[in-house]
Design brief:
This protein has one domain: TIM Barrel, CATH 3.20.20. The chain is built from 8 helices and 9 strands. It has helices at residues 41-51, 66-78, 112-121, 141-150, 174-184, 212-220, 234-237, 239-273, and strands at 23-30, 56-62, 83-92, 95-100, 125-128, 159-163, 187-190, 203-208, 225-228. The longest helix is centred in the C-terminal third of the chain and has 35 residues, at 239-273. The N and C termini lie far apart (45 Å). The model is unreliable at 1-11 (pLDDT under 50).
């Protein structure tokens, strides 16, 4: 279940991503309006269905599984021609972490290793998004080195994003690829980190096959490829929409992250006063 499975060659990978016969495309980091995204699951899925460019997608709202579970229901009713993976973008003390193939909450504000272990215990896979990014809280080299060097497979992530358009130019690309090849040998993934409809597919993962099962196997066997897609311009998204999303992020995300801890603290105070 954990990382550090046997490595598999990617020599049979397509040299041209656009003509990858037999290879599927996955965008494993999309945010919905159940979190700080700007579109509903139905709007996201209808656009993906219309474009017919992706085979697997994941909804990964910040620190809350509710959006992914809602999206799973929407997907099940919609008869879409692509597969769905439920997930969460979890805030750890060492940076953000994607929990994929999970349908239960994952605790926030724990250590990176403890969070990876919890994701594996729930049957999911753990992926590092936007590593080293200066734009958002991200996993750094030293923290990842410590996990890999400790040799406990259940505490090592399964994959790492080396294509993420939101942090392009902030070391998520070439540096992450180079260090991963030299030190960690995790599956290489691309994710759009889309908070807007126009951004979906701006980076994606190529994998042999088309289904969620094919994708999960490819991640564990290290047979994935990260690809940069077309990044929309700020003008295409719209400045008003961008501003609204920033305001939404400042409001929704802290509430999602802090809601459960503050709730537990409040209950403890009530119990102590009784």
């Amino acid at each position: 279940m954990g990382a550090m499975s046997a490595q598999t060659t990617t020599s049979d990978a397509p040299s041209n991503a656009a003509s990858a016969a037999g290879w599927g495309r996955a965008d494993l980091q999309i945010h919905s309006d159940a979190g700080d995204g700007m579109a509903s699951a139905e709007e996201i899925f209808d656009l993906i269905e219309l474009r017919a460019e992706l085979d697997v997608v994941a909804i990964t709202d910040h620190d809350d599984i509710a959006g992914a579970l809602l999206a799973r229901d929407v997907h099940a009713r919609g008869g879409y021609h692509f597969d769905f993976v439920p997930g969460i973008e979890v805030t750890t003390r060492g940076g953000h972490l994607l929990a994929l193939w999970v349908d239960q909450p994952v605790s926030s504000f724990r250590s990176l290793g403890d969070t990876v272990e919890e994701i594996h215990r729930l049957g999911g896979l753990a992926v590092i998004p936007h590593p080293f990014s200066l734009l958002t809280r991200s996993v750094g080299r030293r923290g990842l080195n410590r996990l890999v060097d400790a040799g406990d497979a259940e505490r090592v992530p399964d994959g790492i994003e080396v294509e993420n358009p939101t942090s392009a130019g902030w070391d998520t690309g070439d540096r992450a690829r180079r260090l991963n090849a030299q030190l960690w040998q995790l599956a290489t993934l691309g994710g759009s980190d889309a908070h807007f409809l126009a951004s979906i597919g701006a980076a994606f993962t190529l994998f042999p096959g088309r289904s969620t099962e094919d994708l999960r196997t490819a991640i564990l066997e290290r047979r994935t490829l990260a690809v940069a897609g077309r990044k929309p311009s700020l003008r295409e998204i719209g400045w008003r929409t961008i501003l609204r999303q920033q305001v939404r992020g400042l409001s929704v995300t802290p509430r999602k992250v802090l809601g459960r801890p503050l709730g537990r603290l409040g209950r403890r105070r009530e119990d102590a006063n009784q």
